[in-house]
Amino acid sequence: MDKHGLVLNLTDEVHEICGVMYTEATATVTDANGCSEPDDITITVFPLPLTAAGPDVRICEGNSIKIGGTPTGPPGSQYSWSPGGSLNNSSAANPIASPTETKMYCVTVTSSQG
After folding, report:
1. What is the pLDDT of residues 10-64, one digit of tens each?
2. pTM
3. CA distance 95 to 54
4. Whole-angstrom Cα distance, residue 66 to residue 48?
5. Measured distance CA(41)–CA(24) in Å, rounded
6. Mapped to the 3 state alphabet, what secondary structure does the chain carry?
7. 25-30 long-range contacts, CB within 8 A, separation 24+
């Protein structure tokens, strides 16, 4: 039990429907008077999105290049490239990079399931 009177009991069973994993849990809340009420909840675990930052590339100073994979992530995803200062749009799937020095870009992909 945590400081708010919440007890979470997970089952050992993990289920799969159409590639989505989930488990069931019972949450019990107990108030200051010792009264408690359980409720069943379902916890859904979505797979991590497949991410492709694209191949390493070289460009000459003063040039630009589109970076990212084909595709960078699944449809409906959100993107966050860093560092973003030399990118035209750090939240695009395939931004245009215009670095003035050697840079390594990293992308975080968040699927539509979060």
Report:
1. 555 666 666 667 777 777 777 778 788 887 777 777 778 888 889 998 888 889 9
2. 0.65
3. 12
4. 25
5. 6
6. CCCCCEEEEEEEEEEEECCEEEEEEEEEEECCCCCEEEEEEEEEECCCCCCCCCCCCCCCCCCCEECCCCCCCCCCCEEEEECCCCECCCCCCCCEECCCCCCCCEEEEECCCC
7. 29/4, 29/5, 30/1, 30/5
Identity of the amino acid at 14 = V
Per residue in 87-105, pLDDT (tens digit) is 999 999 999 999 998 889 9
For the record, the structure tokens of 55 come out as: 């191949």
Please name the amino acid found at residue 2: D
For tokens 């589109």, the residue is 66
Tokens of 40: 């069943």
